[in-house]
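Can't paste images in this forum, so I'm doing it all in text. The chain is below; anyone willing to post the predicted structure tokens underneath?
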Amino acid sequence: MVSLITIVSKYLILILCFVYTLSSFTVFLGNKSHQRVNEILDNQVWYLFTFHFVCYFVLFIQTWNLNVLFFFAAQIIFFELIMLLYPRIYKRCSRKMLNNMCFLLGIGFIILTRLSFDLAVKQFMIVAASFLITALIPLCIEKMTFLNKLGWVYAIGGLLILVFVLFFGTSKNGSTNWIKITESFYFQPSEIVKIVFVFFVASMLSKAKEFKDLVKITVIAALYVVVLVVERDLGAALLFFMIYMMMLYAATAKMTYLLAGFGAGSVASVLAYFIFNHVRERVMAWQDPFSIIEGKGYQICQSLFAIGTGGWFGLGLNQGRPTDVPVYESDFIFSGICEEFGVLFGLCVILICSSMFLSIMQISTRIQGLFYKLLCLGFGVCYFFQVFLNIGGVTKFIPSTGVTLPLVSYGGTSVACTMLMFGIIQGLYMISNRKEVKDDGILEEKEETADDKG
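Text version of the structure:
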């Protein structure tokens, strides 16, 4: 009976995820009324809760562990508070982004419960604490009109943090990018620094008047990337580089800068290949992992085996062997999702992340003031390129970079900083709905309060 329920449930789970994904894009189509948009967003809440219930029902009947039920109840209460109370507190928040954030968090909790109940509980506690801490961030972003004036503070502060980690940090998985707090608790400062970096670039570019100003900003941004490369945090270095290039192009609209930047990045990548041994190892593992399956290629091979074993529809929750993949709970969690939920489910996850990115880009186009535009764009690129780096590495599309899947992978620093980032974006959305702004102040009130108006 349990086996039958598991088999049936995997199709029901896929259908619920597909319907939710479809609704995430439906709100973008046509000129829908405010009432119709709210109906779609309300339906998303029910899709989420039903999806969550089915998954935890399957996990419970497979283990008969009452702790699973208690954990499920705690999550339902948490999501209720977020999805029902948050829009009432912040009446001009983006429910689209809020729903997507909760759905991705839910997927993470479910797969982590299946992989390691203790890690799932720890992740949930970090998420709950992070939400309480970041709950006031939208209000702060809306009220603190001086944030665009702190460019050099961001620049120096972020660099000092990275340099501190370089000399006093702890190495994990080959990268010196962690600060050890206790024997079981590590903190990754680069997650915080990437937020500071976006503020730095947005603030400086919004005030740049001459070419020499762009040169100064580029030199400082290059220092960030160089320090990260020395720390062997290649994923973060690539992420910072892409954020800067996209923000520079958005601020100047000059394709020559973009092409020159990517050209310089290509040269730097080749140099890194010959200078750093760990870069060569990752490239070799990407090119032909099966030839070194007993060594550096083992991780990516196991990931591909897991995805291939799951097929289009997956093996069913708790029916696969995702723990065979090293670092299955963080960097390679997507392969575990595809193995048990199926490749079609994995595609839906990618589309939900894409919907989140489109929402952020929509905010960036609507908000007035170059600083706010660049800030929103930078966070959008930061989020989606991180998704690309993670899933690209897991599927052997690109070499593995050790980047987590935002909101889904296990990782306290990562999920806390991602929630902080989305809190900032919510604040920017509230600004775009309330008033027209310039970098030096407020111009006029706006009447628009609907959630993106479809």
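The radius of gyration is 22 Å. The first strand starts at residue 170 and ends at 172.
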